[in-house]
Input
Amino acid sequence: MGDAVTGSDRTPRDQGLRIREASELLGVPAVTLRSWELRYGLPMTLRSDGGHRRYTEAALIQLGLMRDEIATGQQASDAAQRVRVLLDELSPARARIDAVMAGSDRRDSSEIEAVLQESLDDRGLAATLDEVVLPAMRQIGSWWESGRCDVAQEQFTTAVVRGWLARMTTLAPPAASGQQVLLATGPRDMHTLGIEALGAVLRTQGTGCRVLGARTSLRDLAAAVSATEPAAVVIVSHLSTQRRSAIESLISVSHAECLTFYCGNAFLSPRSRQQVPGVYLGERMVEAASLIQRAVPLALPSYAPEAG
Ligand code: B12
Output
């Protein structure tokens, strides 16, 4: 790896490196760095005032991991998935993620719930989801792929997490106003955990919402929109192969008088978000919930951010 980034043309460290500097430091062509960002959203770079990419320390770490994963012979898309799991390894919440995984290994739902409760008391619901629950689910996916766990363990862990989210939602106070946010998956997507998680966050923060189930058809979506006249509709899709159908869901509600939002792995790369109607919610529950609440202010007259 070259260390040719020297001399007076170097960008000050706190502003991040330029793409040429990052490329030289990592030994990865600039065109490849651009393509990783466009295709896999990895990393989301900062932009200078002139619109040029700037690579922070954290971005360089992600890119170094990506380069090393690809060097092991993986396809770039698989390497990008793996990098997300590796980044979770560096998380300050690692001990809690490990405790959830240990509970999953022992098939002990109370052990998992105790860890989630501790994190909830300490960090609040949205942060617990971003820092512990979603990384643990990614880890389960990675364990399953590598044969470290079987499908029964994956299903057990998913069921415990979904049960816990359902309880959070049921115990939430009544909504602060009659306005609803509708949360749905794409018509061919069975991954409901993302909408259940966001639904729990919105409900505990006082926003009324309805979570439609897996594989929400265009027909069910239209029926729910006409029955509830929501202030906003959120479509989450995990499967990149089914992105088109998720976009059709968004298009189908675009005539209604409501805001549209979308997110999920199918929309992770900036390229996949081109010409999609609606606002992209990003990767984290904390920001997604606050984006919705800022856009739908009437739904939350008494909103106060969670602790943590
Ligand atoms: C649990 C699970 C299932 C469960 C879902 C149960 C349920 N009710 O949700 C079941 C068993 C049904 C399932 C089925 C399948 N699954 Co699955 N599944 C998973 C697993 C292990 C966890 C999913 C999850 O909830 N993750 C937590 C999410 C929220 O985190 P994330 O995916 O990293 O999401 C990030 C962003 O996209 C974004 N995000 C995602 N959702 C949301 C939502 C909101 C509101 C916000 C703000 C952000 C956000 O934030 C995250 C942080 O970066 C993942 C592994 C993984 N890496 O996640 C695979 C995974 C999603 N599944 C996958 C696949 C391929 C399948 C199957 C096709 C398997 C098969 N051969 O049958 C089927 C598809 C069925 C269908 N038609 O949908 C792939 C998807 C690959 C892809 N991108 O296309 C994954 C990634 C596993 C893998 N590495 O191959 N699955």
User: Anything to note?
Assistant: The pocket of cobalamin is lined by residues 81, 84, 134, 137-138, 140-141, 145, 154, 158, 188-194, 198, 236, 238-241, 263-265, 268, 281, 283, 285, 288 (CB under 6 Å). Residues 1-11, 299-305 have pLDDT under 50 and may be disordered. The chain has three domains: 13-76, 94-170, 180-299.
